[in-house]
């Protein structure tokens, strides 16, 4: 009803004019023959009401058809939609629609070209990541098979380099994945403990080098419904941050709790923490904050990508921290029962 009234507002002056003419005609009839006027008053009122109702129905339907064709043109500015809409308008409005359609087609062509460039960029990133895996695999092979022949300090440095390279490659690949049009997530029920252990295995050399203790609390036999690769990447960013900003006697603690309609995985460290002024922006792209020298050398992409991945997987990600006393990240999983 409100929508119909909005459509009729633009015709109010003309409707008032028609009403005035109708009223003037009735007035002339009254002047010419008052008895006949009162005898026909009911018929005059009914005819006037039906007349105005018919006009309003025609005008509303006409405007609805115009709006429908206009939005069709916005969605697909092809020549057919343009001509269909122009037939419903006057000459001035038709010229405006033609100009609009020309601009829309131009913008659509530009978007198509940009989308093609983005697709090519995604292909390049994926190809580059595939090629870089060859030297990374050779480095891994060297460390796995010739570690005894290398000095301990050298093997640790190579382990550190390999893990940093792998971490940056993963970030780049998942950034392209998150920003791209193609999504290839595979959701399944999975063990939280297995996923955590896979992530910790990737960070094993760094955990051993910094002598970081890992504690598990209420993790056994707990399953969640998510994408394994995406969840591993998300947890990897959290563990990587905990390792990077660890303090004295470092520790990473995992806990799993059920809270009504949400299961929550807690990842807590006792590192340097995050300043209160930085907390509102910690998930912003490229934000590094003012929490020590380590953050000045950071890219500011780890937690940003973790937050983006959580959004794609329909998870919640929140942070709690106190400067100098560590950080706790909460990963919330919606409860999905097995069918």
Topology (elements, then pairings):
Blueprint: H1 2-9, H2 12-32, H3 34-39, H4 41-75, H5 79-86, H6 91-146, H7 152-179, E1 187-191, H8 192-202, H9 204-209, E2 213-217, E3 223-227, H10 228-244, E4 251-259, E5 262-269, H11 293-296, H12 302-312, E6 316-321, E7 327-334
Parallel strand pairs: 2-4
Antiparallel strand pairs: 1-3, 4-5, 5-7, 6-7
Helix pairs in contact: 4-5, 5-6, 6-7, 7-10, 7-12, 8-10, 10-12
Written account of the structure:
The chain has 339 residues and is an alpha+beta fold. It folds into three domains: 2-106, no CATH class; 119-179; 187-334, Heat Shock Protein 90, CATH 3.30.565. Helix content is 62%, strand content 14%. The chain is built from twelve helices and seven strands. The chain has helices spanning 2-9, 12-32, 34-39, 41-75, 79-86, 91-146, 152-179, 192-202, 204-209, 228-244, 293-296, 302-312; strands spanning 187-191, 213-217, 223-227, 251-259, 262-269, 316-321, 327-334. The strands form two sheets. It has a five-stranded mixed beta sheet with strand order 2-4-5-7-6, with helices on one face. A hairpin with a 5-residue loop joins strand 6 and strand 7 (327-334). Helix 6 (91-146) runs antiparallel to helix 7 (152-179). It is elongated and about 120 Å long. It starts with a helix and ends in a 5-residue tail after the last strand. The model has no long low-confidence stretch (mean pLDDT 81).
